[in-house]
Design a protein that fits this description.
The chain has 13 helices and no strands. The chain has 378 residues and is mainly α.
Length: 378
């Protein structure tokens, strides 16, 4: 009896010292901590997948380059597509792009797109080590700046992205921020297309701005599709039953197709050393803007984090420019990488492509036809 009385007294004392609200607060804090830890793990997974994907793409580019250089040196008449090395490169390219696609389902779009500079850095290193290309001072400086910028991006980028669901995408499509943005984008696209087609202004900035405007739609739709697939796989809620999933999938395919079209034209009219860095800068900027306006990724981010993130982007931009500019051009009489038939197009390649940056939707910029013998009519 005395033990029972003692236990009751201890229970009452515990309640007095630690009211129920205290236990509720502790439980709430633990739940919040668990949510943050889970979000951090997801964020880290997205970064790792994106880095691995871009690294595979850089290996793919150099394997394909090595295949064609070897055939040219041997004077072989064997078609490049009969080489197992070439197919290995193509397979790694597809795997890398699939990794980039998946990464959008785990991490903010404003982080995944700038990580495309990993492909540029890795390509420069691989080409020097394995293809025996010359190492320039600008390569070292550009690589150091790009690596520093990547570190700042990963450290100060938004670490928590909202779960992408069909309902969330529908709300974002109807928000006044996105409606204003898409209205301005459509007007700008029409003006640029008029200057390009009707006024025959073939300036590289005009073409790459057209690509960037399309890229913003690509990023929005890719993250939506990837995010909804991720939610469905994790078993949270099946997203394939919502019509918006298929709408975003169609937008993704269409915007990627038109990106390929304009990138083809840019690579035919201008050198890869011009197209690569400009495309990387414009694509990254459009992806960041899309992430801010559509997915509210910078919501609640401190001014210091925003400043350091922008600084990381600038360092990455400068690094890519230094690495990509004045890359050596290796001429060959053989047809280089062919992506097969694009509807309404025929193109052949006579200049080896240079290592290029990668964000989702820029696959074409790595395997474009450069100054082909056939002109591309729109």
């Amino acid at each position: 009896m005395s033990n029972l009385t003692s236990n009751l007294e201890m229970s009452n004392l515990t309640v007095e010292l630690f009211p129920q609200s205290t236990f509720a607060n502790i439980s709430k804090a633990e739940g919040l901590r668990a949510v943050r830890e889970n979000a951090y793990v997801t964020y880290t997974q997205g970064i790792i997948i994106a880095i691995c994907g871009n690294f595979l793409i850089s290996i793919s580019l150099n394997i394909q380059k090595y295949t064609h250089v070897r055939q040219s040196q041997r004077g072989s008449s064997k078609p490049y597509y009969k080489s197992w090395l070439w197919w290995l490169g193509i397979s790694l390219m597809g795997l890398g792009e699939l990794g980039n696609f998946a990464a959008y389902g785990f991490a903010p779009a404003s982080l995944i797109a700038p990580l495309g500079c990993v492909s540029v850095i890795a390509s420069a290193i691989i080409s020097v080590v394995f293809l025996k290309e010359s190492l320039r001072a600008s390569d070292l400086l550009g690589g150091a700046l790009a690596i520093t910028g990547t570190y700042l991006l990963v450290t100060f980028a938004p670490h928590f992205a909202p779960h992408v669901t069909a309902n969330m995408v529908e709300r974002s499509l109807m928000s006044w921020e996105f409606l204003t943005y898409i209205f301005v984008e459509v007007i700008a696209f029409c003006i640029l297309l008029y200057l390009y087609k009707c006024r025959n202004m073939k300036h590289i900035v005009i073409i790459m701005l057209l690509v960037a405007l399309l890229a913003s739609l690509t990023v929005i739709s890719v993250k939506a599709v990837s995010g909804m697939i991720t939610e469905s796989i994790q078993g949270n809620h099946l997203q394939f039953t919502y019509p918006i999933f298929y709408v975003m999938f169609i937008i993704m395919v269409a915007s990627c197709g038109f990106q390929i079209k304009f990138l083809n034209q840019a690579m035919k009219m201008f050198d890869a050393t011009e197209v690569v860095p400009i495309n990387y800068v414009f694509f990254t900027a459009s992806a960041i803007i899309a992430g801010i306006l559509f997915y509210q990724e910078f919501l609640g981010l401190s001014p210091v984090n925003i400043f350091m993130f922008v600084l990381g982007c600038l360092l990455s931009f400068i690094g890519v420019f230094l690495i990509a500019r004045t890359r050596p051009k290796i001429k060959t009489d053989r047809v280089f990488i062919s992506m097969g038939q694009i509807p309404g197009k025929r193109c052949t390649e006579k200049v080896q492509p240079q290592p290029e940056g990668s964000g989702y939707g820029t696959l074409a910029s790595k395997l474009m036809c450069n100054r082909g013998t056939h002109t591309d009519e729109t």
